[in-house]
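Researcher: Please translate sequence to structure tokens.
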Amino acid sequence: MNNQLPLIVYDQEYNPQPQRQRLCDLPAEERPLYRLHQHGTDSLSNIELLALLLGTGEAPGLAQALLNSFGSLHQLARASQAQLRRIHGIGEAQAGRLLAFLELSRRLQAPAAEEKVRITSPADGANLLLPRLRHLEQEELHVILLDTRNRVLATQLVYRGSLNTSVVRIGEIFRAAIESSAAAIIVAHNHPSGDSSPSPEDVAVTRQIGQAGKLLGIELLDHLIIGNGRFTSLKEQGLAFD
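Model: Translation complete:
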């Protein structure tokens, strides 16, 4: 008599998804919305705030999975839609909500449109662009347009990609300045690595921009390099402004 069990062959590998905490698993008084109404937003954890934003039955577990996957809110802020969608349970709608929320957060950190910000130091210029640039995974070059009193007329994205003297068009940097009758400009770009130390290419590009500005009568006040929560002023460092 053959006592061996029959061999069972599965067509697909069995790969169950981990069980995640759901809203219905929580007592009513521990649910994020209840706690928000009773204690205010300051009392909520990052996971609870994310769960409210996601707005699904599995939101507590999804919020935990997001933070586990990306490591922190700052890293989550750098995520693309494709990266968010890789998290099991994050669909198009949830990814869209997260991206919209992160963009609104960045915009809220910028001055109101009706306010004319005056630049009095490198930190003023850096604070203007830090919310937008600090989490990007690709370099962007922005120009801050200033009037004769160093008040901000506008900021403009002029280039996206690695900063290189062979590809950056100096004319594009000054185009908006000429159209806006700007008296001076500050250029700023980010280092996705988070390190704001200037490279030789950064110094070379700055010299080219400064020389062109002298010919056009538009002063280059500074070149700011934005890292993750920090910045470097080439003017303060005495680089390319001799």
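Researcher: Any highlights?
Model: Strands lie at 140-146, 152-160, 184-190, 219-226, 231-233.
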